[in-house]
């Protein structure tokens, strides 16, 4: 543990007081890096849609236990410096040292440590925790800290707008700068007078909804300029605002417009060329409801809408009708969500400074206007002991180090605006949280939607926040409480007592959560006592964020507070390709539940084939709940999500980023129930998403009407196929072979792929179409040479019998096996295999530009032209990429294509059928197993299908997120 030292006497001590650091994780005399086995990896990232290499950095250094996916995402997202220059970071050590050294230097500068020796121990402990994937800071820390860029450490921002044109235009400006940096922001528009009120000039006001149009257009324009992700924003309006119904209907009406335009043939998918014609699509909308309104809904009474100028009631509405309209809009387009104002402000530590009126885009950060929050998340699965119990003391020690580092960051952080900077420095809001809760509960044999699972999650969350505030009180004794504490001391202490009381209400159900709860109870007692004496260093301590990209960095199976997404997933393999695996926590959970190795193997094999546990051999039905997931055959019930959030909410300073997912068949009444129960259970915010309720997103098989249209098309195609089958059963044809002339044009290409040398000779017809290939690899007489001869003969015969070269190219490009890597061909710099190189080269030599463009294959010259002009296409189309040249006769070692006996071949009735889509992510794999679409957008960076992470989406291919954290 750590303690306060007032009069240090050790060597290197400075005058004054500071933290005395005890070494917990690292080993004295051994640097954390020296205890790790490091290896070099090649990070190559391709766009799975086009096959193009979008990123390449060779020889990066990572611990051997880091997955390929984690090292790929860290290399592409967080390494600084231009690729290929000496300034480029080349390994995890450089990245961690860049960040940690800045934190330690700031801690020393601002007197956080008792001695320089304590500072060194702190550096080692923080380095150890990061390198071993026990926690991660939020993305802006990795982007900016220790670089020449502004030291922005916050991902979450809350802005403020008043009822004046200057303020409104300033809102546009501030949002634009935040979006430009790749972050997101939220704000409440309720101060802007309604369209039912008069201006001082006598005219009628425009109302906040009209100004939302300008901000939405700005976000849509700037979103692609963010360095890391698309723009994310939250717009909030109070339920008593006179324009509330117009606000509720904004995205609902636009969704109807999207459907009409889609049915008329316009491209209305997310990112489609016509989607920009609709409005309000770049923001999440939330209605801020109060207890008065919710009680009026319960009682069926009227509710008053109030003037923004003097607070007088200018219109009354039926509360139930308005609540119904909100739920209908959410049913139709997933917006608006609800934020519960009185609950939020009842847990507010700074009410004397101002109310909490808004949140960040993902709704986990709720604090004062013009403020920001930096986040960090712990990997809960790292604290699971070998006996499958949670190591609460070790978890608490990790929280101490992390919350200390997070507070230090505010000392050197930069902010997008001065008001945000001033508020953050005065109130020092932090957002510690966690990831991998779903995986932890499963490994412990606890169902996510069970009393045991909720008790475990509640006690862990309570321990995390209690330890954070205890350390905050200790820091206040050393470096002082936050500047706004004095005026809010009574309120802050009241909220600490509320947390303590909530902790006392938790009833542990097992030995495991009882241990955690006992330690949490001790921590909250210290918080209350120390807070009375010292005050607190931080106005806020904890939130539960989506942990999208950093979740991948820590190799987490689940994000934030989320359950497991599915029981099967994809694992990237070194050297290319991926492997479908059953989540590794499942065998551990089965062992915890008492199953022997033989039964575990059978159950895991069943899950791998079916994607769920229903009817798995030997698995007891009472254990099914342990393996319930967010999607699939045993998807969690909506209220299971709500109850888990309710269990954890009393122990968080902020809120929870999470969406309650509903099936397409869900009713408006069910949404009303979720919103009402969320209020009764004490949640601060709730968002819902009904499957396929939105059109404007690129799905694998469409949604809503698109699904029905696709089903009708499939049925028609099936019927047509049956008719064709009946006809072609009796049709026999003799394919015609187009032989090459005795003397033909040919070219021989020498190549190297990852150091493996080979030769390819290609022969062409008189019209320059490819007719044969000969591949030479390995010594003559070797097995490899024989296989290549046979392969060459097979391809050559296919070409002469009319199989298009495009078919071969589409089949063999992106085929991954060793050797794979760099080539000596400037047009094909990277190859996934020998076959990948050969057929890319053939495409460049024999296909026209349009044919190659359709396959995503371009020459070096064409790629350069695209960088300079934005277009691959040459000024004049000349056919193939290069002219054939006559070469010497083929070497004697080259095989000879023998004549083949022509036989009658029945026409394949399935010829021309659509190719089965190969899954590239866990979301696509789940779709194939279940036969149901996963309602997620495609990644704007690499084109793969994303999966939900909190209120946002995260890409398993490149780590991009759709949110702000």
Description:
The chain starts with a strand and ends in an 11-residue tail after the last strand. 49% of the residues are buried. With 965 residues, it is an alpha/beta fold. Strands 5, 6, 7, 8, 9, 12, 13, 14, 17 and 18 form a ten-stranded mixed sheet that branches. Strands 20-21-22 form a three-stranded antiparallel sheet. Among the domains are: 132 residues, no CATH class; 159 residues, no CATH class. The radius of gyration is 31 Å and the shape is globular. The N terminus is likely disordered. It is 40% helix and 15% strand. Catalyzes the reduction of ribonucleotides to deoxyribonucleotides. May function to provide a pool of deoxyribonucleotide precursors for DNA repair during oxygen limitation and/or for immediate growth after restoration of oxygen.
Give the CA-CA distance, first to last residue.
30 Å
Count of DSSP-assigned helices = 28
- Compute the number of strand runs: 27
Rg, Å, rounded: 31 Å
Structural class: alpha/beta
Q: Helicity, in percent?
A: 25-40%
**Poorly predicted regions:** 1-16, 224-229, 697-733, 876-916
Taken as a percent bin, the fraction of beta residues is: 5-15%
What is the 3D shape?
A: globular
Domain Ribonucleotide reductase class II vitamin B12-dependent N-terminal: 42-133
InterPro entries: RdRp_reductase_class-2, RNR_2_N, RNR_lg_C, RNR_NrdJ/NrdZ, TSCPD_dom
Keywords: Cobalamin, Cobalt, Disulfide bond, DNA synthesis, Nucleotide-binding, Oxidoreductase
EC number: 1.17.4.1
């Amino acid at each position: 543990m750590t303690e306060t030292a007032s009069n240090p006497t050790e060597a290197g001590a400075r005058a004054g007081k500071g933290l005395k650091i005890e070494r917990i994780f690292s080993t004295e005399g051994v640097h954390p890096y020296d205890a790790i086995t490091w290896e070099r990896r090649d990070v190559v990232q391709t766009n799975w849609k086009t096959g193009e290499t979008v990123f390449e950095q060779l020889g990066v250094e990572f611990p051997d236990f880091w997955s390929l996916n984690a090292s790929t995402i860290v290399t592409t997202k967080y390494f600084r410096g231009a690729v290929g220059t000496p300034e480029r970071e080349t390994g995890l050590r450089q990245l961690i040292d860049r960040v940690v050294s800045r934190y330690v230097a700031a801690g020393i500068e601002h007197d956080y440590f008792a001695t320089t020796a304590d500072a060194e121990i702190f550096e080692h402990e923080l380095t150890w925790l990061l390198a071993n994937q026990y926690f991660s800071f939020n993305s802006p820390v990795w982007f900016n800290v220790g670089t020449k860029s502004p030291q922005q450490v916050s991902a979450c921002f809350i802005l403020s707008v008043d009822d004046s044109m200057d303020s409104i235009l300033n809102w546009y400006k501030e949002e634009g700068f935040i979006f430009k940096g790749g972050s997101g922001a939220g704000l409440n528009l309720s101060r802007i007078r309604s369209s039912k009120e008069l201006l001082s000039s006598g005219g009628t006001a425009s109302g906040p909804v009209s100004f939302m149009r300008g901000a939405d257009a700005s976000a849509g324009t700037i979103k692609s300029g963010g360095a890391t992700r698309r723009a994310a924003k939250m717009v909030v309006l109070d339920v008593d605002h006179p324009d509330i119904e117009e606000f509720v209907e904004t995205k609902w009406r636009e969704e109807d417009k999207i459907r009409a335009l889609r049915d008329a043939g316009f491209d209305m998918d997310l990112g489609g060329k016509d989607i920009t014609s609709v409005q309000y699509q770049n923001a999440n909308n939330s209605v801020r409801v109060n207890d008065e309104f919710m009680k009026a809904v319960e009682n069926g009474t009227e509710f008053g809408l109030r003037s923004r100028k003097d607070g007088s009631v200018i219109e009354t509405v039926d509360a139930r009708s308005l609540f119904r309209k909100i739920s209908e809009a959410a049913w139709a387009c997933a917006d608006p969500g609800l934020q519960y104002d009185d609950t939020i402000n009842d847990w507010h530590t700074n009410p004397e400074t101002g109310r909490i009126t808004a949140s960040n885009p993902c709704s986990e950060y709720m604090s004062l206007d013009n403020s920001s929050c930096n986040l960090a998340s712990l990997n809960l699965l790292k604290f699971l002991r070998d006996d499958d119990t949670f190591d609460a003391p070790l978890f608490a020690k990790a929280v101490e180090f992390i919350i200390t580092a997070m507070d230090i960051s505010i000392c050197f952080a930069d902010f997008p605006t001065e008001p945000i900077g001033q508020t953050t420095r005065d109130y020092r809001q932090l957002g510690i949280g966690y990831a991998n809760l779903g995986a932890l509960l499963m490994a412990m044999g606890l169902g996510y939607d069970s009393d045991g699972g909720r008790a475990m999650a509640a006690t862990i969350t309570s321990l995390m926040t209690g330890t954070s505030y205890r350390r905050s009180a200790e820091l206040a004794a050393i470096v002082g409480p936050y500047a706004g504490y004095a005026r809010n001391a009574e309120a802050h202490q009241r909220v600490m007592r509320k947390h303590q009381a909530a902790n006392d209400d938790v009833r542990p159900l097992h030995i495991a959560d009882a241990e955690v709860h006992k330690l949490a109870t001790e921590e909250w007692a210290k918080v209350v006592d120390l807070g009375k004496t010292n005050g607190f260093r931080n106005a806020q301590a904890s939130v539960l964020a989506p942990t999208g990209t950093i979740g991948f960095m820590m190799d987490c199976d689940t994000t934030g507070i989320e359950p497991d997404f599915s029981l099967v997933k994809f694992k990237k393999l070194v050297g290319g390709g991926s492997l479908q695996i059953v989540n590794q926590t499942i065998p551990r959970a089965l062992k915890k539940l008492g199953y022997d190795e033989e039964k575990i193997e059978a159950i895991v094999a069943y899950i791998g084939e079916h994607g769920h546990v229903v009817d798995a051999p030997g698995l007891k039905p009472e254990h099914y709940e342990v393996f319930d997931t967010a999607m699939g055959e045993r998807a969690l019930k909506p209220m299971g999500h709500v109850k888990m959030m309710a269990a954890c909410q009393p122990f968080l300073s902020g809120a929870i980023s999470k969406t309650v997912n509903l099936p397409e068949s869900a009713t408006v009444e069910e949404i009303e129930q979720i919103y009402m129960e969320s209020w009764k259970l004490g949640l601060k915010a709730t968002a819902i998403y009904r499957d396929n309720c939105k059109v404007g997103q690129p799905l694998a098989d469409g949604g809503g009407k698109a699904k029905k249209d696709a089903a009708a098309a499939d049925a028609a195609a099936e019927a047509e196929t049956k008719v064709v089958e009946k006809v072609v059963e009796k049709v026999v044809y003799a394919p015609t072979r187009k032989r090459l002339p005795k003397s033909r044009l040919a070219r021989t290409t020498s190549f190297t792929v990852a150091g493996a040398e080979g030769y390819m000779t290609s022969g062409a017809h008189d019209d320059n179409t490819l007719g044969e290939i000969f591949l030479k690899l390995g010594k003559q007489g070797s097995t490899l040479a024989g296989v290549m001869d046979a392969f060459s003969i097979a391809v050559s015969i296919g070409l002469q019998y009319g199989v298009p070269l495009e078919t071969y190219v589409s089949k063999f490009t992106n085929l991954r096996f060793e050797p794979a890597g760099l080539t000596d061909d400037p047009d094909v710099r990277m190859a996934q295999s020998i076959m990948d190189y050969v057929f890319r080269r053939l495409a460049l030599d024999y296909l026209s530009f349009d044919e190659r463009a359709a396959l995503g294959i371009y020459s070096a010259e064409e790629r350069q032209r695209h960088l300079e002009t934005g277009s691959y296409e040459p000024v004049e189309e000349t056919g193939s990429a290069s002219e054939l040249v006559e070469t010497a006769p083929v070497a004697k070692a080259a095989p000879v294509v023998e004549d083949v006996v022509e036989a009658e071949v029945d026409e394949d009735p399935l010829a021309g059928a659509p190719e089965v889509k190969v899954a590239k992510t866990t979301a696509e794999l789940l779709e194939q197993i279940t036969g149901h679409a996963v309602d997620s957008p495609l990644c704007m960076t690499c084109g793969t299908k994303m999966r939900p992470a909190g209120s946002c989406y995260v890409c398993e291919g490149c780590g991009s997120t759709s949110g702000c954290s």
